[in-house]
Write a sequence for this structure.
């Protein structure tokens, strides 16, 4: 698959809290690409995504979304982005239909356009029959689907997903994966973090593996296999070979 326009350009990204969390990451992700950002817990994935989404300010480095500098023009950049964290954030006292109407209003969408998009997403995610139910009564999976509908309602050009499949049963996870693939095929750029490596292996076009705030390797699965010298390795094999701590031999 080939891509042309650069959707995301990250250069020299750094962020320190009590210790360095992200240390000089460079990324280039093209429009329409489905990109997997993988790494062990504490590797810096979520911090990186939060900076890309404009939720954290980098200490150093630059971020451009479709050529827009996130720090210099944050509102214009955020209009192109949707962010879905690992814990769905909903207004529990609203029904799912009211929640989507509220989110659409924040994006200043035309009401009729928003209504069409909301119905399409709710039907696609099997939530239409629950449209008048309050979110407080939803299961974890239903909340995750409602949050995904909220992220997609304004038709973002860059969708950022932090562990979107955590805690979902197989049926709901399948619905979410199918919808994401449809959006990617329609031209939406998607960045996904997940610890479910076989899911990443089936979904993404290209993979970046980070550890301790640094990018260790990047490429298609075939390219990562070639770097490791094993043409039939699974993504799990490649990942573990890269991030495994060095073995200390007994003296």
């Amino acid at each position: 698959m080939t891509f042309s326009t650069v959707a995301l350009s990250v250069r020299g990204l750094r962020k320190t809290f009590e210790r360095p969390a992200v240390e000089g990451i460079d990324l280039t992700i093209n429009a329409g690409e489905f990109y997997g950002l993988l790494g062990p817990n504490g590797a810096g994935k979520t911090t990186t995504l939060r900076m890309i989404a404009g939720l954290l300010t980098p200490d150093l480095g630059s971020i451009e979304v479709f050529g827009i500098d996130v720090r210099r023009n944050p509102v214009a950049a955020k209009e192109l982005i949707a962010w879905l964290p690992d814990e769905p954030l909903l207004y529990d006292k609203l029904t799912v239909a009211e929640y989507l109407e509220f989110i659409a209003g924040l994006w200043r969408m035309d009401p009729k356009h928003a209504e069409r998009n909301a119905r399409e997403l709710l039907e696609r995610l099997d939530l239409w029959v629950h449209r008048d139910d309050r979110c407080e009564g939803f299961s974890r999976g239903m909340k995750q689907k409602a949050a995904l509908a909220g992220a997609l309602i304004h038709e973002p050009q860059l969708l950022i997903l932090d562990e979107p499949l955590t805690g979902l049963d197989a049926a709901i996870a399948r619905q979410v994966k199918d919808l994401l693939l449809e959006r990617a095929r329609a031209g939406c750029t998607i960045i996904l973090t997940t610890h479910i490596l076989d899911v990443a292996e089936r979904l993404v076009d290209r993979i970046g593996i980070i550890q301790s705030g640094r990018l260790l390797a990047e490429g298609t699965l075939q390219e990562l296999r070639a770097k490791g010298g094993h043409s039939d390795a699974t993504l799990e094999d490649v990942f573990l070979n890269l991030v495994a701590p060095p073995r200390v031999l007994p003296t």
User: Anything to note?
Assistant: The two ends are 50 Å apart (CA to CA). Strands lie at 6-16, 20-30, 34-38, 60-65, 68-69, 81-84, 158-162, 189-193, 206-211, 214-219. The mean pLDDT is 91.
